[in-house]
Amino acid sequence: MRSPQGREIEIKLHVPDLRAMRRTLAHLGAQAHGRIFESNTLYDTSDSRLRTSGRLIRLRVETRTNTRTTRASAPSRVVLTYKAPIVGRTKPRTSRRYKEREETEVEVANSADLARILAGLGLRPGFRYEKFRTKYTMKNLPRLELDLDETPAGIFLELEGPPRQIDRAARLLGYSRSDYECRSYAELHREYCQCRKIIATHMIFDT
User: Using CA atoms, how far apart are residues 18 and 151, in angstroms rounded to an integer?
Assistant: First the structure.
């Protein structure tokens, strides 16, 4: 959920127990809006110019699902996203507890056609990551989006919206500001692999 100016403000919270978190969200009156499978691909130049400048181009294919076995069905949505540091800064702002970036998204009709366009612009696919995401909203925090992400590197709850509503939701869920995580899924995946002494490639589920 972006601000009217297209600014993304978010944090992640590590979730040690998925079922317990679902129960807590239900107890707080959070409403779930369906579970989807996401396949994400980041695109960059051959010399990683976007990544080193704090920018990102992502192609996301979403498939509505209830189980992992249905993820090969027809996608319900294809989204192209561009993220960049806030104007006047050289990197995403993470020094004040929250990750803040400019964000622009557009829904497209066909992921294969768009991939060819990106290739024609000199961009090539790089890091791929998958997750199952369940979106939640809370009536008493109307501008906040809560995304419960099941990933190969662990379970995370992403809170996106105004900082005050992020803080309030985190407190209600039993977290403190010291629990706020601002790293990307690529960074979390690398740490996950390093801790287990395995080679970090793409963050995808075993088939």
Answer: 11
Dump the DSSP string for 62-129: EEE-SSGGGTTS--SEEEEEEEEPPTT-SS-B-TTSSEEEEEEEEEES-HHHHHHHHHHTT-EEEEEE
Please report, for the domain that includes residue 35, its CATH number. 2.40.320.10
Cα–Cα distance measured from residue 136 to residue 39, given in angstroms and rounded to the nearest whole number: 20
Residue 122 in domain = yes
Q: State yes or no: pLDDT of 18 exceeds 90.
A: yes
Give DSSP secondary structure letters for 8-25. EEEEEEEES-HHHHHHHH
Cα Rg of the chain (Å, integer): 17
Beta bridge partners of 11: 159
Interval 50-108: pLDDT, tens: 999 999 999 999 998 865 554 555 668 999 999 999 876 555 554 468 999 999 999 99
Q: Is residue 163 part of a domain?
A: yes
Q: Considering its fold, how many domains does the chain have in total?
A: 1
Residue 206 has pLDDT above 70, yes or no: yes
Which amino acid, 17? D
This prediction has a pTM of: 0.89
Question: In terms of residue numbers, what domain contains 128?
Answer: 7-195
Instruction: Give pLDDT, residue 36.
Output: 95
62/79 Cα distance (integer angstroms):
8
Which pLDDT value is given to residue 3?
46
Say if 204 falls within a structural domain: no
Nearest to 98 by CA among 164, 29, 40: 164
Residue 177 lies in a domain: yes
